[in-house]
Specification:
4 copies of one chain form a homotetramer. Chain A has 269 residues and is α/β, with parallel strands linked by helices. Chain A is built from 9 helices and 8 strands. Chain A has an 8-stranded parallel barrel with strand order 1-2-3-4-5-6-7-8, surrounded by 6 helices. The first copy, chain A, is globular. Chain A starts with 10 loop residues before the first strand and ends in a 10-residue tail after the last helix. Chains in contact: A-B, A-C, B-D, C-D.
Chain lengths: 269, 269, 269, 269
């Protein structure tokens, strides 16, 4: 049983693609927490196809924790390297062994030595750390399963491990709706079954546009995803990254009503 | 003008997928050098889809240099991390600033921070180091160009940089001949033109079987590749990795006669 | 000519032994800057004889810069490792190539490989970085000179390098006044001459008590030190480290009147 | 009970200061093993007061193991950094969990963060690793004890930990016999008692000359040292480091007869 799936409710991790400023994070928490979003993404480190803005990085890791943990909100960020993992562990330790955080390994991070170093470091960190790995960029079931094997081989505990499907790079595969990445729901369900781990869906990187993101979420309801990782920004047009696919708070509100299972009880209720 | 393309001859890098033993390397040099193969691959570090044999690693880096450089042969290996780059630089320095070596970045190594760290380290190493980067696993021209930008942004000199096309993961794209990876010769030529860098073909990872490797090489002659990176093993059936796609010395000999341009003068002539 | 000794005035670096909180630093800047102290020490990382409080560390590096640079004050901290050097360089870069900072290598950090790694990293950082190395813990002129050679061998520029004498561990040498460490003013002057670098005195680690610190400063006036590194705390009794030797602002004020040369012009004048 | 002190015999670690070549090590093993020396030092990494020859380094770590372990001899080397510790662990693992090795932390390596990183890495390595720490360069009981606390705080097991007294830097302390470093036998015995760990004596760095080394050993017999770390070279005049203090095999033979307790049974008997 995974730490985050003890209840029958869907896991919802939502928030801006990247952390941009203290004010942006404060506004995100203020807006999303009342919707019952208790896990807020705001990535510190951004993988880059070309040289460009790389996120606020380690210098804002204290900020990320300061503006979430004291408010009962769990922060979530991608990490790219073993150094990032060491910093996350060290910073979270200041908040005690019960402090919670979600960190994930991105789709381009397919160097198994780095994957293993990261896993080993996180395995020794506070038990409140949940580790999530996304599928790799290319369509291959065996490789995706392999990431899981590498992570487990370093002793990272299953109870704190999750998977996320963010679609595969389309390449030359037909793509009539112009999705940014192509989902393979069946493969995701097969991986979920084989690994016994919770499977989250990232509709944002699949959709690429707000309209597509909404559609993808609707389509996904036919499958048993354990939760969703959704990009949402209080002012998407000003977002430094992924401006087209970040939902407004209103759109997120709509979407949550659909993806939350019938067991969901409103926080305000 | 790149260090390795000063002559009009094709660049030929051939040899076993992985370094397996001193004896195996000695035999490879003894067999391939007389065919005019002056750059011999024998990888020390292997990316792994699942936990398994990872190559002989740094402990055999001294061996790799001892059994090639004194015989006028240039060793070639993949490197996976910044630590590997540091070791290669340090070990090669023992042979002086003129010592030559080829190191490459593999297709799964798409963490731009690691790419940049590696590039920075290699840039400060002996000038005899040629750095080659392969295309990423998934079909995307923009990402492939991006690797080049990341590497150059760290000051790695163009004159010692090469690119290698090793095909893209097939995923759900039709693949009637069962190739291990799908080539995109047009994209490779476009990248060659845009970057101004030599473009090498790796028919071994595209073909996946000896027969396919031979075919791919024949097909590639219609394009202006600057050279070839070919897996060849004196006893392929005993190879620890990629046993099906490593050529025998005889097959390699045949293939070289085809891919070498008319300007090639036999070493024995 | 060193960046910090262009004027004929003594270099004064004063402030708390360790950074303890944002408020403590704000108060230090507010109190010391009006005394003409434009370089304020507040160490992030503390070498420890036994396991204990290690300083606020990298998580407070952003704070150290935020509360000094915008107020025209140059922050100063000890660094212990190459990782610390990388962070300092990265953090300072956010403030531009003109941003100034002083970092020093402590007396127990006598692993020449680490010294060289740190020097190499700092050499590539913003030109506003001044690097200072203290003498080692034990009394040995040759070793002290050797630190300088190791640093310069990595290309760190002389114009940004300073030395600091903090006394030698007394061991079994007679020590009637109970100094924490024994000064060797003659050796310091010899090293100053041989290296051609500015020589700073750290009376705090020599004295060990406020009274001794004042005496040491008076004694030192007979020698040509280029400046002073002095521990001063707005509330020394509450200091987390070195409580006995940190001066009150009033004592520092007195001391500065003595050590500042006749060429000093009061900032308020 | 420490792994190396199960018998009542003195622990003898002898051999060249630094590993210089395969031939030198082969000759050392051939000469010393028949004297009953089953632990042979031959350091790979040398701390340097000034830039100079730094030892053969990681490239010869495979050699060090190849020429000792298969002959039933335990290799011993100083390590300077966490990278060295990682390499030692990785290399020794190739010889199985029973393979034995002695590594030590030198007297200048007093950065507690590096000490802790090294300890943590070694703690996870093969159980055959014995870790030894020397006293720091300067005369201070509290600091020496602190090293032990730092090491144990990272979970390094007591059963595989030893201490070595190599004397303190003389500085301005009277030194009529011109010893290279001054011993404090009483302090060594106190530290032995307080920590409960075996205490080895390094007469070579105390003596500085062959004559002094012999004298120091004789003097030490009045104290309960658990063993000796002695520099011995088959051709001391050609040694690359510490030429004056390395014993010839004949002198070592003499010395061993004195320091070995009455319980020692000759291997040839």
């Amino acid at each position: 049983m995974n730490n985050l799936t003890k209840s029958s409710e869907k896991i919802i991790i939502a928030g801006p693609c990247a952390l941009e400023s203290r004010q942006q994070l404060q506004q995100s928490v203020k807006t999303l927490a009342p919707m019952g979003v208790s896990m807020i993404r705001a990535s510190l480190w951004k993988p880059r196809t070309q040289p460009g803005w790389e996120g606020l990085g380690w210098m804002s890791l204290p900020l990320l924790l300061e503006e979430t943990l004291p408010f009962g909100v769990v922060p979530a960020t991608e990490i790219l390297t073993a150094e990032h993992a060491l910093m996350v562990v060290h910073a979270l330790e200041q908040y005690g062994q019960d402090a919670k955080m979600i960190v994930w390994l991105g789709s381009r991070n397919q160097n198994h030595l780095e994957q293993r170093k990261i896993s080993k470091i996180l395995a020794t960190g506070p038990e409140g750390i949940t580790f999530m790995f996304k599928n790799q960029m290319w369509d291959c079931e065996r490789h995706w399963l392999g990431i899981c094997e590498h992570i487990l081989s370093e002793g990272f505990p299953r109870e704190r491990l999750m998977i996320c499907h963010r679609g595969f790079s389309p390449g030359k595969v037909p793509n009539p709706k112009g999705l940014r990445n192509l989902p393979d729901y069946e493969m995701a369900m097969k991986i979920k079954e084989k690994t016994g781990l919770p499977m989250i869906l990232d509709p944002s990187h699949i959709g690429g546009t707000r309209e597509n993101v909404m559609d993808i979420c609707m389509n996904s309801l036919a499958y048993d995803f354990d939760g969703y990782l959704i990009e949402a920004h209080c002012d998407p047009h000003k977002a430094k990254t992924d401006a087209n696919q970040q939902l407004t708070p209103n759109l997120l509100q709509d979407l949550l009503q659909h993806v939350r299972g019938p067991s969901y009880k409103s926080v305000s209720a």
